[in-house]
């Protein structure tokens, strides 16, 4: 059967037909998608409270509409990644229940008892388990899909399986290209435009350095990366962290995932400068955020190295001094990608509610300029930082 | 029809059946393969003198025998690469006449009026057109299959098309791993063994640096590289240069092809220290060799940059200063790969007749030690050389 678009009724029928639920009696379905690319239904048995999520790819970019077509094969990518994640790090991703590549849909564990981390952070929610959980996710997925662990053959098969042309192109354009010139895809706060035109778009050194990062993204097939690991791709609670939306996954630079999540936390940090909130509460939340980033990164490096010591099957990975060099490069690239993410989220196509929630456009502009300036500093100085504390100190010094 | 192994009679029948020749009358066939992996027949119409080459992959590594099985899909890789080369740089590769993926065979232009460059160089043959021709081949194939020129989609399709698991693995093992320890695959001059055991295999810094080069080879999908560009993969005459045997092709680091051909010329340069030959002739030939290398590399860089200026469609490639940085990295990696190739050819599985032709094992050992020492210097100092002249000067200073 060919592709057809689900609605709430069809979603229920489909799940019963495929044995996910025994019968349609008492089932309810609700479309809750707020991403850019998909329909998302929560289907629930009101009697037992059992529920699942059915996610179906739309053949266009939802936020733009049918004028931007997009192949629906990305659900195959997401299902493939989720299978690997279910195997490598089952605690920190939704359980994959069912996949149908023809319909471009996957059925997975319902995580709606948790809140999207981005929304929680806008309300100053704290996530004490997040550094522990996310660092394990990163260390395990990035190490065990790399040449350090996999055989040459297994690794190359992953490269072929995750070619993911269209979604990589979105990142290449929207993160590494369009924010650096006056592209149609940009979404520009009118108060920010003068700064972009007079200052930001004239920074040729920055454009060169970002182009190097883009080239890394396009050529370095290191690990299976999630590819879109921002705070809107994470459901979190006090003791739970679930990373989803892996449709951008491909074999790319490991630092991209690490830098992207850190960059999104920095965005939240900086966003408070534009908000009317008790300064003491802001101060407290900001310390929490920097501590979170530091712990996340420290745990990640520790666990990645532990994996390496335990399971580096590639004998070259055991050459003396090689791992240190690898970890240094990984850190440098992480800071670069982190900066690129901070920049794209200020005036690129997809922005963060952390900042767009600031209704006063002048205040929003001031936050955005800070983001651009700090993003630039991170990228330009990425080779000079010795550790993440030096980066968080820079952020702290520049923001109040 | 499934795979069957060709012989001279079957090769003639096949070519007539597929219209390459009109009739079998007057056709002769001769098996001339001296590579490691294939059968090669020259089939000739004695009346017209027309001839073609039919190359068929064997399902094992020929030099080792049936105990080392190898899938025959590599001919598909070679045919795919040859199609691209026929398009990009038709003057410097054999013309592809026919392919049969089921039989793992290709039929191509017969180049047997030319000599294998390695054999010619062992006889001090000079190739005045080689730098001009080979630099065009390198500049055009490496630029026009890169992200600088191709669309993101076209490039990623090439990555998928040239996954080439088995032949990449051969390089990973035989070039970047086995020569650095006492591996069974090595083929060691008994007079060299003490040096390997007491000196060479203890060099942990070298092993670390080679591991970095190996990782580049495994992860950096920059351009469609030939993958085995030594002097035994080139037919050359006074005014002709034809590069063949592209079965190792895949999307890898561009510097690998450049470094490999330069390394093979350096091997010939150093080999003369072990030969009884008129010192004046040696001196003259050696100047020719270094001049060849310098011109090859200078022309390559010039043409690559010309292609870039003319045809870099990726706007990021036009960022100010970006190309210079790219060319610097390309040069550094070239010297690294060049050194690795010099090392692997001294005691790895596949060696060069330039050196194995030295029958006195002690003299051969002395040449091999020079090769190892210089290969190491190139790898360890690859970040410090400013240009190829500094490298050729080093070679010159160390060899008489």
Write the layout of secondary structure elements.
The structure is a homodimer of 400-residue chains.
Chain A: H1 8-17, E1 27-31, E2 38-45, E3 51-57, E4 60-61, E5 65-69, H2 74-88, E6 96-100, E7 105-109, E8 115-116, H3 117-122, H4 130-144, H5 152-161, H6 165-174, H7 193-198, H8 204-219, E9 223-225, E10 234-236, E11 241-243, E12 250-252, H9 255-271, H10 279-311, H11 322-347, H12 353-356, H13 361-380, H14 388-398
Antiparallel strand pairs in A: 1-2, 2-3, 3-7, 4-5, 6-7, 8-10, 9-12, 10-11
Helix pairs in contact in A: 4-10, 9-10, 9-11, 11-13
Describe this structure in words.
Chains A, B: It holds the Pfam family APH. Chains A, B: Homodimer. The first copy, chain A, has 14 helices and twelve strands. Chain A is an alpha+beta fold and 400 residues long. Chain A folds into two domains: 102 residues, Phosphorylase Kinase, domain 1 (2-Layer Sandwich), CATH 3.30.200.20; 284 residues, Aminoglycoside 3'-phosphotransferase, Chain: A, domain 2 (Alpha-Beta Complex). In chain A, a hairpin with a 4-residue loop joins strand 6 and strand 7. At the A-B interface, helix 5, helix 6, helix 8 and helix 11 of A face helix 5, helix 6, helix 8 and helix 11 of B.
